[in-house]
Amino acid sequence: MSAAAIALPAGFWVNGVHHREAELRPLNGEDEAFLLDSGGTLPPARRTTALLARCLTRLGPWSPAPPAAARALSLGDREALLLHLRRLILGERLECVLRCSAPGCGEPMELDLAVSDLLAPLGAPASPWHEELFRAGGGAAAWQVRFRLPTGEDQELAADLVRTDTAGAAALLLGRCVAWAAPEGGEPAELPAAVAQAVADRMAELDPQAETTLRLDCPACGRGMVTLFDAAAWLFQEVAGRAADLYREVHLLAFYYHWREADILAMTGRKRRLYLGFLAEALGWEKES
Question: Whole-angstrom Cα distance, residue 254 to residue 285?
């Protein structure tokens, strides 16, 4: 399958020009092996950067996309790219099982999701920097804040800290994204906690694809639950679940066609399975269910 052209929900700016066009190619065997052999040892944010850097064939004015470009994208654009990548390699439908989080329930819930339902609509092009007035609490002073949306690089740096210092990671992320903040009519100063939370909430509103929320009702107990759908974690889990298939396909194609492992791994999964289908017909293998 050739690369697919997609539009990023937020997009990015280069020399004063807004871009949201991108092209992704599907995973080949080398990408799958990377996820299986190395991806599991990388923190999720860095794994996402590495995977997108491998599969982005064009990004805005760049063709091919420079390796660092995936790191500079907003979190929502990275999430959208992962969803499109999943569609390219495994199709539109996602079947998953979640357990009810209500105390005393824990019943499994089977979900049939569609990639199109998880993609946020395209937003209007906005300035890379936002300046807004925030007021937290009834009588609190208003604060003028200049900020940008978090990027993959911000997420990577915060992730290095989050395991040992969750509050410090959140502060690091916000500190990287806020250029300056000051009480209205006053001098720049450190944001109060309530205003910092208001800024974080506003960032989430401006980049809705960054966190995909599923709202569900448990068919067993009837109570509702809210959960986040993590496209990166889900894609890695699906690819990892097919590890045995990947190496079995490489083994069979190398054994019967005498192709080099590198040449087989350069194929997409769809192409490998096409050749295996021809091989099964030629050798009279029974079709696997």
Answer: 17
Please check whether residue 240 is in contact with residue 35, taking contact to mean a CB–CB distance below 8 angstroms.
Answer: yes
pLDDT tens for each residue of 248-260: 999 999 999 999 9
CA distance 149 to 130: 9
Alpha carbon distance 36, 19 (integer Å): 32
**Contact (CB, 8 A) for 279 and 288:** no
Q: What pLDDT, in 10s, does the model give residues 116-146? A: 999 998 887 778 999 999 987 666 789 999 9
User: Do 177 and 158 contact (CB within 8 A), yes or no?
Assistant: no
Q: ∠190-191-197 over CA atoms, to 5°?
A: 150
Residues 186, 194, 231, 127, Cα dihedral to 10°: -20
User: Cα separation of 49 and 63, whole Å?
Assistant: 17
Pairing of strands 56-59, 17-24: antiparallel
Question: What burial letters (b/e) apply to 64-81, b meaning 16+ CB within 10 Å?
Answer: ebeeebbbbbbbbbbbbb
In the chain the first and final C-alpha atoms are separated, in Å, by 24
pTM, 2 dp: 0.88
CB contact at 8 A, 204 and 210: yes
* Entry field: residues in the chain: 289
